[in-house]
Fold:
Amino acid sequence: MNSSPSSELPVIIIGSGLAGLTVALKVADHRPVVMLAKRDLSESATAWAQGGIVGVIDEADDVEAHVADTLDAGAGLVVEPVARQIAMESAAAIDWLINQGVPFTSDPTGPKGLHLVQEGGHSHRRIAHAADATGKAIHEVLLDKAQAHPNISLLQGYMAVDLVVRKHLAYERQPGHPRPQAGCYGVYALNLNTGRVEAMAASAVVLATGGAGKVYRYTSNPETATGDGIAMAWRAGCRVANMEFIQFHPTCLYHSQDRTFLITEALRGEGAKLELPDGTRFMPEHDPRAELAPRDIVARAIDFEMKKHGLDYVNLNATHLGEAFLNEHFPNIYARCLALGIDISKRPIPVVPAAHYTCGGVVTDLQGQTDLPHLFAVGECGYTGLHGANRLASNSLLECVVVGQHAAKSIVQTAPTQTAAVLPWDESLVEDADEAVVISHNWDELRLLMWNYVGIVRTNRRLERALHRIELLKDEVQDYYANFKVSRDLLELRNLLECADLIVRSALMRKESRGLHFSRDYPKTWPVSYPTILTPIKRRAGSSQPL
Structure:
């Protein structure tokens, strides 16, 4: 333990997925850690990840090939030094997970004894996996490690409301007292068990909250993906980047009883074909890589064919792979589809694109450091420049581990924030909500308008309509927030509206089509382009703008 006075303040990690768990396990031997989860600790996007994690470990593969694939998928906006560094550390990331006890699928003849698969956009088999439930296997192992660590406190049912910054410190208001330095000093968190907001001081805060997929009506994301970290960092004064690049996974199960179940890209890597209902294969007409093209190309192709033929879905046909192969390599998909009446060894799987991954986020360096001292963002909520205009499959889990470990090292090596007296949460002027139905109605309206107006294919007119309605909804919700006690639904809607606003404003700024952003008004791709970076402005009196 660090012997400095402020070492008693914990490092607070918001989120319980792979990124947050990596930081926690690396920091906990040096400082106390508190991890907040707004729902069950097992509910994270990590646990839903099927495909795997990149590892450049085969002799036939190399770092430069992985970097080239990442640059190609990222459509000219990947920060190459970041991509190279993360690729260079991929083998070590795999080793660390193996040492933690992650049960990757084995192959005695494979590198490190692992079975590697190939996914869309990759030129080699370099994806380590645990059958078709890699994220779940990784998450369970690391969560068990965290629960057993004496220096890690895991708190379920705590939702972060906002970050504690300089204006929230009690002694700042004392005459003659030195003004504290700018930075993050903790978090206000709603204890969902008591309904009270608690002020939590911290030596550092790590945002590991995932993406903002729930801003769309159809998504492969869990209920937790409401953009909390991105919205809080923006309100605290941090820049965000590339929010227009929302990755739509091409193949989400189309079924009335399950609209969030992902059909992993690895199934296409093993030979599954995309077809129209009459059995016609269509991907070769859209890209020479066919089903193994990057996700943005495949998603747009499916969207095009659905609109062209008036379809609700297309088919993913894996029947030729056979029951034994499918049950061995994709047991979870096989079992889930069978439970819904679809035997994937005998009939194709109905699939549609769905919002899957937020490629943009809070601007950070490779250590996860944001614009605000002692505030870090890791995983999907952060923007390191790795993903550019489109994420390469299975780079996300790798980024969680590599950036998470760098962030942990930076936290341990950096002097913590000075001990701070945080002002308590003031709810003296608010009352219990009288019409919670307003929240659910606004939530539904937001997700539908984002799906209709800010989806896979966009136009300026649609974006402007969306922005106008989002601004009205933000005013309504801000008024509600100012007058009533907060709830999880209200806080999530508030954050989703913030993220929706950032997505639309970013999309309007990009006067070209690139990667995941396709505009009918600007169908061409510029020879050279740059990230879209938004910077908050200082709060004006009576304004809801960020600090």
About this structure: The chain has a mean pLDDT of 90. Residues 216 and 447 are 5 Å apart (CA to CA). The chain has 15 helices and 21 strands. The first helix runs from residue 18 to 27.
